[in-house]
Each structure stands twice: as C-alpha cells, then as structure tokens.
Design goal:
heterodimer; A: about 300 residues; mainly alpha; MetI-like fold; 13 helices; B: about 325 residues; alpha/beta; Rossmann fold; eight-stranded mixed beta sheet; four-stranded antiparallel beta sheet
Chain lengths: ~300, ~325
C-alpha cells in the first residue's frame, strides 16, 4: 500500500510540473500587462522600465526559471496591479471559496448519493422518474444561468435569501452553494443510480440475499461498497468542476473568493496572480485525485496488490 | 435438554417430507407477455437426501430454486403453489420471516464462484456474515467458527486464508469458500446451482467428493441443479427432469437411468459421452419452446421423434412407471424405444 502511495505521489508531482509550464505559457498569450499599467501618454522609456521591473524583458525560459525558483521557496510573487504579495491576496480570499465549495460538495454528496441509491433500488418508481428528469435538467443547465434564475426566484420574488455578498452568515451561502452543486448533484445521482443498478444485478448481491441479509444492508454494504468506485472518481472531477464553477458563480453572486480574484486578475493581465491561482487549483485537483486513488485502493483490494 | 432438542427437531413438522413443493408456478410478466418459466411443479425432498433437477438452460430449474427461496427477481412472481419446509408454507411468510429461513434453513451455492463472492470483502467476513446474522456469533467465537467452516471445505491453511480477498483465491478455492458460506449455518437444505460448470474436470471430481463428505458430516439435504446427467448419477438419490417449466419425469436415479420413460429423458441420456462410444455425440434437434407461447399439448412434442396427433393436442397425464416413485408425463411412456 505505501509503495502504491509513493508511486502515485511521484506521478502527482510530475503532473504539477507540467501544469506549471502550460499555465506560464498560456497566461502570456493574453496580452502585454505593461500596456494596462502605464498610462497611454507615457513615454516609451517608461514602458521599457516597467518591462524591466517586471522582468518581462528576459527570455521566456529565464522568466519561467525565475518564477519557479520563487514558487519552490514559497514565494508566489507580487501582484502587478495591486502591488501586494500574491500569497496575501489569496489567503485573504481563500476562506470564502473554501466555505462555498465545502458546502456545495457536502450538498452534492448528501443529496446525490442517497437519491441515486434509492432510485436504483426502486427502479421505475415515481422517485426514480423524478430523479432521472432532474438529472437531465441539472446536467443541461449552465450554472451562471441557474444562479441568475435562483436569484430571481429566491431573492427577488420570494425575498427569502439575499442575492449577493457574504457579510451576514449562512443565508448568503445557500444560493451560491446550491448553484455550484446543481450540476454535480445531477451527475452523482445519475452515476450512483447506474452503478448501483449494475451491481444490484450481480451474483454477489444475489448471494447476500440468499444468506438472509437485510435489504438495507444488501444495498448499503454489499452493493454500495462496489458501486461507490465510479462515483468516487467522479467526485474528484466534481472538485475541479466546483473550483472552475466558483470563478463564474462567485462573479454572479459577488462572492469575494479566489474565483473572483482570478477573474479580475485575468482582466488586468496580472500574471503573478493568475499563475499562482491556477497552480493552486491544479494542486488542489491533483491532491483530490491522489486521495481518490488511495481511497480506491482501500475500497478495491484488487488495485491494492497490483 | 439435548434429548428434548432432538425430539423437537425431528418432530417439529407434521408433513411427510422435509420439503414439499406443491404446484409451484413462477411467471415473468414481461412486455412481450407472460413467460411461464415454472409452470406447476411439484416435488419433495427428505432429510439428508440428494435430489437432482436436470434440464436444458431455460427449462426453469434455477427459477424453481429461486422460487423456493422467494428470491425471484422482478418482473417474475410466484403466482401459484406452496412450498412447505418442515410443514411451514414459505409462500405465506413475511419478508422478515423469510430472511430467517434463507441462509439458516435453506441456502444456496450460486453457479459461478468467480462472480458470486463479493470482491470487496475478505472471504472470512463473507463466511462470518450468515453466522452473525442467524446465530448471533461475535468476536473470537465467530472467528473460530469461520475457520472451522473453511476447514470443513478443506481450504488449506484456513487460519491464514481468512483475510484473503476472492481475487487472491483460485477457482477451486473460491468454489469451496462459496460452499463454506452455504453450509455455515448448517441448513437443512443446500441448493447447488450448476455446482461444477465453472471448474475444470479434476477440480470438479474433488469438489463433488467434498460435497458428499460435507453431507455425511452435517446431514444436509442437497438439491443439485444441473444439466449434467453425470453429476446426477454420481451424487443424487432421486432426479426430476424438467422441460419447459414442468417436470416431465421423476424418480429414483437408478430407475430413471435404467428405464427412462420420457423421450426427453432418453435424449438427455444419449447426450452423455461414453468411453466405449466411437460415433459422434448425440444432440437433441430443435430448440426448447418460447416460454411466452408454450404449445398447448405436450411441450416436447415439436422435438419428439415419436410424437402422435394427441401429443400436439393435450398435455399428458402423469403415469406411474416401474416403482411407485417413478413418474413420467408422456402419452406413450417408455413404450416407444
């Protein structure tokens, strides 16, 4: 097991390294940040000076090495527009994003898993029908649209929940969290249902019934432990989806999180922030994947030994 | 105390037989209509006896077994009949009462040990489960009992194997583990569904020997569901031959093998390979009928080489053959060879 973890960790580090190169290149395609930092009427020397100051005059590989050296020593650089350390900016915004994704993730699993299992166990029933309809709807609607619709219904018409902002407790979390969770709930439900249906047809589930096992245990112990594997992989994708979704949803709900920070940074061509946040998201995603692989190995002994 | 228990055990039911299946019918209500998978099947089983149920795939033998355990998957349903176990009609029991029968009084070894063991649990746990459900065993006692069971099915180094997962075991070992699960609570009846199809020839023989030994040790009654007349000859006291959802011939194995009376039984016996035979192995022409549209007369008539007009019109009465226990449902039983 520990050999397996080490092997997977090495893979993770390599992936992260590749991601850092790709991000570094792509962000430089978005345009010249100096044009936004220096006033239009400024003389040409000012441009050159700014370029030197930001070290944009160096060859791109040199720039990368400089940045990488910084990152490896724990320094994410300084924002070019706000003149503040990127780390400070991220740390300031991070709790808001974490709060939002954690709630959305919990919402996804707490709603998606039980309904998926129930729908499979009562295949063809009313709830199965509803759940499938919801899944199709949920997976077909983009979350920025869903967010606006939720604001219309719950904030504007019903006035139950606030439309935007963060100051003022859990009430402010509900709409954005549900908006982010909407798509993954549908996915988890559908995947759990189909995975459960397959497992419920298996001979070992039949054997469990032959042994006289209670139906609830047949479902949750014998079937679910096997059916959970694909759902688990999917939940890693959910995390990526949520992080990605947070960029848009945080903007819709004026939520002061990392997602909004990076969106603003893209507009301002603030390379250090974009690079740092994407690298952070990537680390987050790769760690999530790594954890899934490890849990996978725990749940499925076949992987553990090969 | 023990004497009393023995007494209550032997006299705990009033019927003649340990198991008495009467007119059991299991239909599947599909979109294409009603499939009469099992259509009025009656048979019985005594304590410590071995009964074979033979027939082609789709003849209804596995569904009969699932029907007795009340585990017919939807859209299948028991539409008629009774299943008396120790005098108690299982078809009348609640789901909860039925769960206490399964695994404890009547258990089953499923066909394919490759797929019937749960890949996510160690075999020790899988054997332990029925013991903890039905006998409430816990901790050390439970563990010892599990090891005993694995020893009973001759799993070498049983203590060390308890923590193994199914994929770590060979096919033969898996089949034995499945056997240990089936026998763990000392059921009165153990149904073996195609016990050896997943095993190679040498392991097959070993496994059948093992089952015989287990029967000697525990006094369990076996029901072998198979298409292999060889297994019937080796293992069973009596045999039911099923065709298209009905029993067409039944009786003591010796009588049925010496005087097969239903043309289907004769065809089945001709399908057996013989050492001295030089000609090609025989097979039965044609296909078994579609269970949605059974012929109105004898269901074997379309494939029967000697079928007369009456065979296509009316279902034959059951005729008593050589012994009183040897029955055949044919218009011309035995006399057409």
């Amino acid at each position: 097991m520990s050999r397996y973890i080490i092997k997977r960790s090495i893979h993770a580090v390599i992936t992260l390294f590749v991601v850092s190169i790709v991000v570094f290149m792509i962000v430089r395609l978005s345009g010249d940040p100096v044009l936004l930092l220096v006033p239009d009427e400024a003389p040409a020397e000012d441009y050159e000076e700014m370029r030197k100051l930001l070290r944009l005059d160096e060859h791109i590989t040199v720039q990368y090495v400089i940045w990488m050296r910084q990152v490896l020593t724990g320094d994410l650089g300084e924002s070019t527009t706000q003149r503040l350390p990127v780390a400070t900016l991220i740390i300031e915004r991070f709790p808001a994003t974490l709060q939002l994704t954690a709630l959305a993730f919990a919402f996804t699993l707490l709603i998606g898993l039980p309904i998926g299992v129930y729908a499979a166990a009562h295949r063809g029933g009313a709830l199965d029908f509803l759940a499938r309809g919801f899944a199709v709807f949920g997976q077909a609607t983009p979350n920025f649209w869903m967010g606006i619709v939720f604001i219309m219904i719950f904030a504007v018409w019903l006035g139950w929940l606030p439309a935007a902002g963060r100051e003022g407790g859990i009430k402010f979390l509900i709409l954005p969290a549900v908006t982010i969770g909407w798509f993954p709930v549908a996915g988890v439900m559908r995947l759990t249902r189909s995975s459960m249906l397959e497992v419920l047809n298996s001979e070992y589930v039949k054997l469990a019934r032959v042994k006289g096992v209670r139906e609830s245990l047949v479902l949750w112990k014998h079937a679910f432990k096997n059916a959970a594997l694909p759902v688990l992989t999917y939940s890693a994708l959910i995390i990526v989806f949520m992080v990605r979704g947070s960029v848009i949803v945080e903007t819709v709900f004026a939520w002061p999180g990392v997602g909004r920070l990076v969106l603003e940074a893209v507009y301002n061509r603030d390379f250090p922030i974009v690079q740092a946040v994407v690298l952070l998201f990537a680390t987050f995603f790769i760690t999530a994947n790594l954890m899934v692989d490890i849990t996978y190995a725990y749940l499925n002994p076949k992987i553990r030994y090969s | 105390m023990t004497q009393q228990m023995e007494q209550t055990e032997t006299k705990s039911y009033t019927g003649d037989h340990l198991l008495d299946v009467k007119d059991l019918s299991v239909y599947f209500f599909t979109r294409r209509g009603v499939a009469r998978a099992v259509d009025g099947v009656s048979f019985h089983l005594d304590e410590g006896e071995s009964l074979g149920i033979v027939g082609e795939s789709g003849s209804g033998k596995s569904v009969t077994a699932l029907g007795m355990l009340r585990l017919v998957p939807p859209p299948g349903e028991i539409v008629k009949g009774e299943v008396y176990l120790e005098g108690e009609d299982l078809t009348k029991l609640s789901g909860r009462q039925m769960r206490k029968i399964r695994g404890r009084k009547m258990s089953m070894i499923l066909q394919d040990p490759m797929t019937s063991l749960n890949p996510s649990f160690a075999i020790g746990n899988q054997v332990a489960e029925s013991l903890s459900i039905h006998q409430g065993l816990r901790g050390k006692t439970l563990k010892n009992k599990v090891v005993d069971m694995l020893k009973m099915v001759r799993i070498p180094a049983a203590e060390a194997r308890v923590g193994d997962f199914p994929h770590q075991l060979s096919g033969g070992m898996r089949q034995r583990s499945a056997g240990a699960i089936g026998i763990s609570c000392m059921p009165k009846i153990l149904i073996c569904d195609e016990p050896t199809t997943a095993l190679d020839m040498t392991i097959q023989a070993q496994y059948l020997e093992l089952l015989k030994d287990v029967q000697e040790e525990t006094g369990v009654a076996f029901i072998f569901i198979t298409h292999d007349m060889g297994i019937v000859a080796k293992m069973c006291d009596r045999v039911n031959v099923m065709y298209a959802g009905r029993i067409v011939e039944s009786g003591p194995v010796l009588d049925v093998f010496r005087n097969p009376s239903h043309p289907y039984t004769i065809s089945l016996l001709r399908c057996l390979p013989r050492l001295e035979a030089v000609e090609r192995l025989e097979s039965i022409d044609g296909q078994p009928p579609d269970p949605h549209v059974f012929p109105s007369g004898c269901r074997f008539a379309p494939r029967c080489p000697k079928a007369q007009a009456i065979c296509h019109e009316t279902y034959p009465e059951t005729t008593v053959m050589t012994g009183t226990d040897h029955l055949a449902a044919c218009h011309f039983p035995g006399d057409w060879k």
